[in-house]
Amino acid sequence: MRIACPYCGPRGVDEFSYLGDATLKRPDPAAENADAAFHAYVYLRDNPAGPHRELWQHASGCQSWLVVTRDTRTHEISAVEYARDAAIASAGAE
Amino acid sequence: MAEPLVARSALRPHVAPLASPAGAPGVTLVEVENLSLAALAAFKGREAELTDAIRAAFGVELADGPKRVTANGVSFLGTGPGKWLAVGPAGTDFSTLPAAVTDQSDGRSVFRLSGPKARETLATLVQIDLHPRAFGPGSAAATHAASIAVQVSQLDDAPTYEIVCFRTFAATLWRWILDAGLSREISARHAG
Ligand SMILES: [Zn+2]
């Protein structure tokens, strides 16, 4: 598998570290249901068969954090963005 | 009494053997010493200020990408978004640039690999595409060679490559390159 880093260009997957689901949002600790929300945030994961947005770091390259949209059935990658840009875009959408 | 600090190569003959081929070298490996190195990270939103300061101080037009730009003997290698490795002759002062500046002069070793077989020698060690179509003079890449973190850049069409690594790994990387070059008439010299 190769990931097209927006800075470095395409690189082998061995240069990247996987973190996991990029769609999770840290719950509000002051909310009434904070215990249940944090349990879900820390432990519960979907296991989708299909496109999945996930965090990777280009650890052996430019060290950027990336959001990679990967089809879990085929490893086909349809998008790679800087995690910072993705976070700003998602904050702006709220 | 404390010993004065003296800049010394990380290479010694017993850990980094020399090599000289019988005929014309296919590839030449040398260590570059007496350099000043610094890691630069632009402050958020102040990239233009850093670009202006580098233009004024060194006459270099900073590139935003995995490129190597050089003027007046001072080079800047793109290592990541908003990050560069600055390389100049010993004594070059990068500390006043408007960025997070971390001196690396005693932390890195710098090698140059050149000659007609330099590309195929380096290609045995890194996984990036070194074909001239993908990587040429002025290209730079942060990657790994034999699992050692390196900054690779190309200087000219000889081709000449510069390889920067943390100095703790210098002797190991040197031996990897030497092994790769032994079947390619490598000449390897260092002053350590
Ligand atoms: Zn990268």
Automatic annotation (TrEMBL), chain A:
InterPro entries: SoxD, SoxD_sf
Superkingdom in the source lineage: Bacteria
Pfam family, one: SoxD
Gene3D superfamilies: Folate-binding superfamily
Recorded GO MF terms: sarcosine oxidase activity
GO biological process: tetrahydrofolate metabolic process
Protein name: Sarcosine oxidase subunit delta
Species in which this protein is naturally found: Methylopila jiangsuensis
Automatic annotation (TrEMBL), chain B:
Taxonomic lineage: Bacteria, Pseudomonadati, Pseudomonadota, Alphaproteobacteria, Hyphomicrobiales
InterPro entries: SoxG (IPR007375), TrmE/GcvT-like (IPR027266)
Protein name: Sarcosine oxidase subunit gamma
Pfam families on file: SoxG
Gene source species: Methylopila jiangsuensis
